[in-house]
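Journal club prep, notes for RB
We'll compare a predicted complex against what the paper describes. Inputs for the glycyl-adenosine-5'-phosphate case:
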Amino acid sequence: MENKNTLENVVALCKRRGIIFQNSEIYGGMGGFFDYGPVGVEMLNNLKRYWWKDIVDKRENVVGIDGTIITHPKVWEASGHIENFGDEVVECKKCHQRFRPEDIEEKCPSCGNTEFTEPRSYNLLFKTEVGVIEGSKTTAYLRGEACQNIYLDFKNVVDSTRQQVPFGIAQIGKAFRNEVTPGKLTFRSREFEQWDLQFFVHPNDMEKWFEYWKDERMKFYKGLYRKHENLRFYQHPKEKLVFYAKDAFDIEYLAPWGWAENEGIHWRGDYDLTQHMKFSGTDLTYTDPITNEKFVPNIVETSGGVTRTFLYLLLDAYEEEDLGEGNSRTVLKINKDIAAYKAAIFPLVGNKEEIVTKAREVFDILSDGFKVVWDGRGNIGKRYRYQDEIGTPYCITVDYETLENNTVTVRDRDSMKQERIKIEDLDEYIS
Ligand code: GAP
């Protein structure tokens, strides 16, 4: 079931089940900042591992880095962010709330007034200060996009690894934007995470690699989400491309509020390395070890939002099912690789020592290879409902029969079918 309330339902589920919390909630909250709860952090880590496996682990021509959030301030001059990393903002003349012009339809979303100031431009970078002595502190910026570290480390990676062009550098990391109108849970946040691949190629090979990464990235998202009809490419119109880009595509997801960006696949050409050469004075040209040709590598960038993907995954997975006879359930049919726990282990009753001990044994066996969770609280029906809501693929119940024949009941999240499985076969069954 998909309806207009899916976002509201997902927001409620996130709080109820420890997936995403509003940051500083006890102080009234901070708009655009979120914490991940005990269930959410497991899912988010699994999501990042899923990307890393696909982009780094399975390829011989991609390596990873982990860069800092604060860099030399000149980085943001070179990248152009200080001059033009802006959004337009208009102010309601009555309630003085500020909005992006595209977010208002004639009336102020807050008070209904129809009069606004003229649009003004507004820089999204967060400023901070580095240094201890008042008066000699340096203004620095929290990175507005995570990818800049990759350009900064390009030469270090070439000099320290066995990689040769074409090759890629990958990174997952936080980015910060002082968004005018954060909203729709984590969709537009002020602190969020990005996954970036910058793939360095010979200028003559750009076309080929651009197509290659477009395909790879769409395949990735199709592997992640259930509803493939909610994915599409959007090609940026030629007249709106930045001057150095020959092409740019977004992978978009159909959210309850319409098609929205998930990841950008950008033709960056030699722009980034050339800018950093100019501003730093360091030579970033590459010499082909076989032909000795010297050139500035061109870049195909794939840059997606980790936290935004996570929100889309929740929307993609959320279902309310009518079970008949007045019963219903909420279930998160999330990709099994991303679920917080692979299985939940239930002792049927909490007051029979042999059953609890046997269930502990099962927990110990499985927790060696999988992330599993223990639940001994309430009746079995309630435990199923709880695990369904957080998307646990299997619930394993240790009962009286287990003590006789070493089998347990395994219940599947999606089909709700139950099977008896031997404890020794559980490992294989789950994987
Ligand atoms: N290095 C290129 C770059 O940063 P972008 O299109 O501005 O490109 C890439 O950002 C991705 O980061 C977007 O596709 C989106 O998924 C995510 N993203 C951007 N701004 C965001 C925000 N305020 N909150 C959450 N995710 C955001």
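Talking point for the session: The mean pLDDT is 96.
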